[in-house]
Write a structure and sequence with these properties.
- The chain has six helices and twelve strands.
- 25% of the residues lie in helices and 23% in strands.
- A hairpin with a 2-residue loop joins strand 11 and strand 12.
- The chain has two domains: 130 residues, N-terminal domain of MutM-like DNA repair proteins; 125 residues, Orthogonal Bundle (Helicase, Ruva Protein, domain 3).
- It is an alpha+beta fold and 279 residues long.
- The longest helix has 22 residues.
- The structure holds a DNA duplex (16 and 16 nucleotides).
DNA sequence: ATACGGTCCTGTTCGC
DNA sequence: TGCGAACAGGACCGTA
């Protein structure tokens, strides 16, 4: 699933291949893909046709293509979304949701999404970001991100620390995979109440998040120059580097105890019961 | 205000 | 062999 590193790799790819392109045509092939663009598909198309993509930006897991019209095309990939740059005559797959043709012939941008949790909408960028994501917190790469205030906020809550890592209004970009990995590196159990963690422990945890992201972006970054910006996140640039996620039943790389899988928050949590004890 | 479980989706895997 | 159930989980929403 695309989390921050996968989205960042896609951002770089789209920036590389679509920036400065003028959109000549837009075709919405599945209405659910723009369900939160309330004025509908015709309005969506009208706002994008003839617009020039000026830059490609990201906060957390959200991408937006800034346009010379002053508006922005906001995109969230959900579980299975992909942004593809393809030859404009490449065969259309079953899960194509939106396609964007460019004035310059040769290539086009496609939004492909099997499970349709992803979505796009045209929004007005206010204060450097679309209004629809004003509630999304900064991620560790945003220049506005402040580790001290984020740590303080985290330590005010009595919720489990994993819940907070996944709360995009506290710190953005972290999904289930990197949450489990960061907790493993920090040797913390996901249900540990955040207000019972020391400042240093929360700092350490955020540092691990940042390091994980750095490593995953580096691993995925090798594909920037490929024509096809193709990532579903699941193929995992980083799957070889995982220490907890998906390793249930296998030995902990640190202490050799067996990694445990538990259902938590309606999803899977992987942890080492020996070096990430519940208490 | 915060907290949290339910809901949306469909291709793949699993179990009977 | 076939078919239904379970599973994957990010964001949002209603309720407490």
């Amino acid at each position: 699933m695309p989390e921050l590193p996968e989205v960042e790799v896609i951002r770089r790819g789209v920036q590389r291949w679509a920036a400065q392109q003028r959109i000549s045509e837009v075709e919405v092939t599945h209405p659910r893909a723009i369900r939160r663009h309330l004025p509908g598909a015709e309005d969506f198309r009208a706002r994008l046709r003839n617009a020039v993509i000026t830059s490609v930006n990201r906060r957390g897991k959200y991408l937006w293509l800034a346009l010379d019209t002053g508006e922005a095309l906001l995109c969230h990939l959900g579980m299975s979304g992909q942004l593809l740059i393809t030859d404009d005559d490449a065969p259309v797959g079953k899960h194509l949701r939106v396609r964007f043709e460019f004035e310059e012939p040769g290539h086009e941008l496609r939004f492909v999404d099997q499970r349709t949790f992803g979505e796009m909408l045209v929004d007005n960028p206010a204060n450097g970001g679309p209004r629809h994501i004003e509630h999304i917190a900064f991620d560790v790469y945003n220049s506005e991100f402040d580790i001290a205030s984020t740590t303080a906020r985290i330590r005010k809550s009595n919720r489990g620390i994993k819940r907070i890592l996944l709360d995009q209004t506290v710190i953005s970009g972290i999904g289930n995979i990197y949450a489990d990995e960061a907790l493993w590196r920090a040797q913390l159990h996901g249900e540990h109440p955040a207000n019972q963690l020391a400042t240093g422990q929360v700092h350490d945890l955020i540092s691990h998040v940042r390091a994980l992201f750095d490593e995953a972006i580096t691993a995925g970054g090798t594909s920037f120059d490929a024509l096809y910006v193709n990532t579903n996140g699941e193929s995992g640039y980083f799957s070889r580097g995982l220490s907890a996620y998906g390793r249930a039943g296998q030995p902990c790389r640190r202490c050799h105890a067996t990694i445990v899988l538990e259902r938590f928050m309606n999803r899977s949590s992987h942890y080492c019961p020996s070096c990430q004890p519940k208490r």
